[in-house]
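User: quick one, sequence for these tokens?
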């Protein structure tokens, strides 16, 4: 059995019902919009975010979930999908999960409007059901994600990212949404304030590990749906590179910065830089930090009672570190 199927096993029925409700939540009276949302639904990813919502809800809700958990999962997925559609426009990306992106098929104007539509659908789903507590968690996450993206763009221009700034960028960009999923799962079943805080932190730590793993893919040989060295081409300063810049000699540092600034589209130069980062221990350093975040998240999770839902969350945490794409 695949790991993702194992993780889904205790929430299989919830995920089935969620998919129905999620598809319904996208419907509109505009034929073009329905065609596009149908395209989105048929090309969904692993749906990790709703899985977090249901696993945490069942862990803290004594094995039961309520309609608030379904709405919370739907809102998270609607808003997450909206941000992906907008990201593809911002990045001028033609592919998403191996398929053509919305902007590639229907152009930027339509993609932006579809993203806006999904965002408004998510907000209305919460407002109509008076899930203001859930909406607050999600809104804070969206604010953080936007700030993280802008901070990354600002720092990429100057190439002056410190390790601390890098952690702040990935906390905002990636970890806050996974933290929101876990907090919503807890909030939906009326968990205690302390439990909600713990679950938020668990999601954040897992999200930090998740993003470092993503950054490591840029230096690997595996086919992962994005070209090797793409972060370097886009002048994104990731942890392996930051560590090497901090420990390199002045001449190596000048060479690295020159490659990123002036030769980031040169395949040979990018390959040389990847080799240098590997030889200088950049990947080992990033892996050790990723493992530290995993360990912290696991310690937090083990404070909760052992059952199939906690086991599935442990599996999810390990999967994040060990996944091949």
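Assistant:
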């Amino acid at each position: 059995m695949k790991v993702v199927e194992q993780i889904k096993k205790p929430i299989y029925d919830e995920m089935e019902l969620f998919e129905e409700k999620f598809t319904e939540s996208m419907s509109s009276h505009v034929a073009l919009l329905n065609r596009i949302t149908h395209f989105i639904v048929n090309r969904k990813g692993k749906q990790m975010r709703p899985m977090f919502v249901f696993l945490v809800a069942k862990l803290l809700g004594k094995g039961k979930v309520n309609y608030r958990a379904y709405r919370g999962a739907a809102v998270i997925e609607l808003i997450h999908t909206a941000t992906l559609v907008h990201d593809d426009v911002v990045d001028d990306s033609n592919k998403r999960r191996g398929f053509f992106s919305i902007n590639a098929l229907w152009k930027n104007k339509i993609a932006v409007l579809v993203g806006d539509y999904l965002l408004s659908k998510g907000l209305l789903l919460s407002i109509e059901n008076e899930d203001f507590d859930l909406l607050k968690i999600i809104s804070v996450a969206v604010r953080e994600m936007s700030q993280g993206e802008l901070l990354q763009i600002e720092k990429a221009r100057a190439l002056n990212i410190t390790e601390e700034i890098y952690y702040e960028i990935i906390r905002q960009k990636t970890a806050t949404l996974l933290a929101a999923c876990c907090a919503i799962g807890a909030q939906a079943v009326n968990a205690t304030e302390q439990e909600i805080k713990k679950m938020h932190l668990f999601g954040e730590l897992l999200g930090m590990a998740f993003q470092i793993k993503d950054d490591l893919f840029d230096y690997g040989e595996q086919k992962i749906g994005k070209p090797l060295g793409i972060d370097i081409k886009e002048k994104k300063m990731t942890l392996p590179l930051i560590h090497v810049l901090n420990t390199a000699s002045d001449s190596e540092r000048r060479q690295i910065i020159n490659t990123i600034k002036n030769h980031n589209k040169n395949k040979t130069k990018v390959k040389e830089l990847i080799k240098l980062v590997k030889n200088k221990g950049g990947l080992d350093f990033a892996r050790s930090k990723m493992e530290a975040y995993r360990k912290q998240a696991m310690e937090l999770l083990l404070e909760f009672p052992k059952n199939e839902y906690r086991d599935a969350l442990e599996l999810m945490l390990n999967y994040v570190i060990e996944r091949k794409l």
